[in-house]
Structures
1.
Amino acid sequence: STKAAPGMIVRTRSDKAVKARQGVMEFLLINHPLDCPICDQAGECVLQEFSYHYGTGGSRFEGLKVHHEKNVVLGPHIVFDGERCIKCTRCIRFCDEVTHTHELGLFSRGDHTIIGAFPGRQLDNAYSGCTADICPVAALTLKEFRFKQRVWFLRNTASICAGCARGCNVNLGINEDRIWRITPRDNEAVNQSWICDEGRLSFQAYQQTERLGRALGGAAAGEATREILVKSGYEQVAGMLGEIARKHGGATVAGITSGHATVEEQAALKELIERAGGSRIALPVHERGDDDALLIRKDKTANSVGARLAGGANCTMEELLTAIKIGKVRALVVLREDFLGEFGAEAMAARGALDLLMTLDWRVTATVKASDVALPLSAYGEMDGSFINFQGRMQLLRPGLTPYEESDPGWKPLLEIASRLGGPAVPKNFREAFRWAVSRVPVLAHLDTPALGKLGVSLESPASERG
């Protein structure tokens, strides 16, 4: 608490300093339960580390410890264990200074002081999970991770959140080929050291949704289509697109791209549509709520900027549906979107006017079920990729999971089909796919994956391209 001043000399290893630290540690542990073997924080506990490095290894305290309530539900996502709390007030300061929601305070006095929510209130702000991150002990724990895994079993993969256009930097906590938690990773230019609760728990949707693991024909496809797909794969799909282009004109081949898709996937879809002779590519808008003053964006896709910049998105869904109904579009390639589920009866009516509906997705959707051809894609956490956030910052998505069954990143099947229509050779790996994709966009052409690193790079793109 002593402020630094000119000429000040600070000794950190003198006998006096060492004994002072040991004394502080002894007092901190007087009422603290010594339950490290069963504590969720064991392995990443600041108090545990400080006790090891700066404590005496013993205690002279012989009285009864002060007990507080355990398993206190403070809000939808946070549980409080009063006995472990060391009254550092980080959680209170977070709610006061970062979210400005002021739910928490200190109550009682002396060694009976306790953290709690004010009467009639809950810890239910949009960033409540961050209080568990900054708690140096396990006084605050996240309900959804509590007692699920030992942290030393987890392998952290540095990636980015795909929940909205912010693109928060995160670590994926992975064990046994499963994401157990998502925690924020420091990046001052994007999310500082925070993440919202929705993004923190976004991995659950990937574990609870029915996956598409193999190429198949949907309910609208006949047995012949299924046989073609199984036996001949990309060659026959390219032939089907080519036949429609020859019969009705290349302009009748169109696509639906997605802000959920990577830059490489979006560029590959554009390549396929152009190779077939088309140019029309629609980008569905996924907006919910409002932007807030901290991190949350109403655009719930991570890469809508990339869809416009590299993916060639040039029309709205309403314009595309109209073009289908009047016969200007006869073949439609859908990338990571459920347009039948999103647009309901209007989209189903348009589906009847299509000669070919091909969908590429990681999940089984209404659109997949109604497709003539459906190809399985890797989901979040299973693939490399790049996103461009609303600020125009390009960042890398990294994998930590094994791809599900026969799924691939979307650029691979799209470019496999495009290559059979006279397109470029299919990249052998993600870095080649990245280089190919950015080479098509002048503002990205100078980039390579090492340059993006773990924090990404800001692009010198027009504000209109940054959303």
2.
Amino acid sequence: MICLVVGSGSVESDELLRNIAKSSRLLICADGGAFYFQRAGITPNVLIGDFDSIKPVFLKLYKELGVEIIKYPSNKDYTDMELALDYAIVHGASRICIMGAIGSRMDHTMSNIQLLHKLADRGVEGVVVNENNYIYLISESIEIEKKDGYMLSLVPATERVEGITTQGLTYPLKDAVMHIGTGLGISNEFTSEKAVISIKKGRLYAIVSRD
């Protein structure tokens, strides 16, 4: 099952949000993400959080619309985004698209991206999406479709990544090793309609991005 989770970071494109929502069976709002759902004219299935970011008018509206509302105390161990992802996992999500995960708060941004590890540990495919980036975490292999005007970068997500092999890129790798803290895999270009990336050990971020 495909799930869309929207947090309170930055979401600039209502069109992108609508397109992802159309292909998702479960729509989850993490607290302040309610603003983006409402702006795009979409009603989520579930609203989760401590509600320190949501406007009272949206909370009232969702209650009236019968949206499932799960409130946590503000003094909690996990972020609203992580709680939303946990809900999605428990309710059968096999792929989760995460929007509103990137914003001006770098601590929240980094934490949200690293939640891809939690999804991978549970066997769930995750992707963090905004208007210029699609961020995946590779544990074994992945196929990524070409997007016009986008580059593909590989960034180590563990101290050492071994056996990196790529196809469909201008600068291919074969059984390569990358160490965290290197820019070796930045700004590659697609040479076919899809790129295939596989690794043997470690984890690797694959980031499809544009300026």
3.
Amino acid sequence: MKKKITYFVNDISFFKNHFLPVALRAAEQFKVSIISDKVDLELENQYPELKQYSISIKRSSVNPFSDFLLFFGLRKLLNQIKPDLIHNITIKPILYGSLFSKFSNRKIKTINSVTGLGYAITNNHLLIKTIMKSLIRIFVSKESYFLFLNRHDKKFYEDLGKVTIQNFKIIGGSGVDEKEFPFTKPLKKGKIEIVYTGRILKDKGVIDLIKAMKLLDDESKKDVVLKLYGTIDIKNPTHIKEEELKSQLIRGFIKWEGFTSEVKRILESADIYCLPSYREGLPKSSIEAMAIGRPIITTNAPGCEDTVQDGYNGYKIEAGDVEALSKKLNELIKNKQLRIQMGENSRKLFLRNFTLEKVISQIVESYNSVLSITC
């Protein structure tokens, strides 16, 4: 009889973007189900082997009453599904999925995907941060297995006494399909394109990037355009208001293109990819740009630093250092051969560390390893 794996995630869209290929591979070997904020009908019709369940979960809520209801709703579903392993994704599922496993009468294994620490932990609000640390200490069992995207997040859980030598693996993000995102030479066009893809947040360095563009020398400004692709996430405390963003735009020089579902086409048109973020798990956006073969300018912040070997496939600057960011942009704008060489190196680095097949193999291997452990 096939063993059962249940994914618990707060956002089905995030699951589709980052974990769907893993779930499909797992479904070849296990019975797979998903608990998330809603049932995705397109996903249900296309992949009926992935059984979906919905639960009321708000990723940005810190309301104890709603979280109390969340736990009991989760308990009801998991008692119905009876999984052998729960794969919790992001902080709130990690907390409540772990709590269920910890006190369940059945022997249920747990894998926690730490895709980032989340605003509740990384913000400067000492009380909220202290509460979150206490919840992790209480809810998360030392017998859990962890999948981290970077060493900084691993150290955070290690300091809380949850990580041992044997219960974790650092993986290459969610992976990108090397065939879906093949190496592409930069397109010939009128202006050099600097591209950002992601949510329009202050913590992603969007305002820093705009400021850096305005500091470019006059020669560079004539030859370049910045294109920002992404939506304003009003549920995120660091979101940028639409009026504020629009007030910073300059016709023909700094553009906000909004949401796009054509990331591959956007990156093919790009000459430079820039993500000056203050913290990431491991940014899939940068990995997609690496796969296409573009030079990357990012920060030395957690997660971001792992996508660039400084001077090899791009540059890393201190998060928030607008002048340094502008300087590195200037260098790449003025040196076409350097852009091309760094882009080729990005593809090489991608193939070594971040392919979809590599990531899927790492995660499915973890499933088999964890399920083979006797309690």
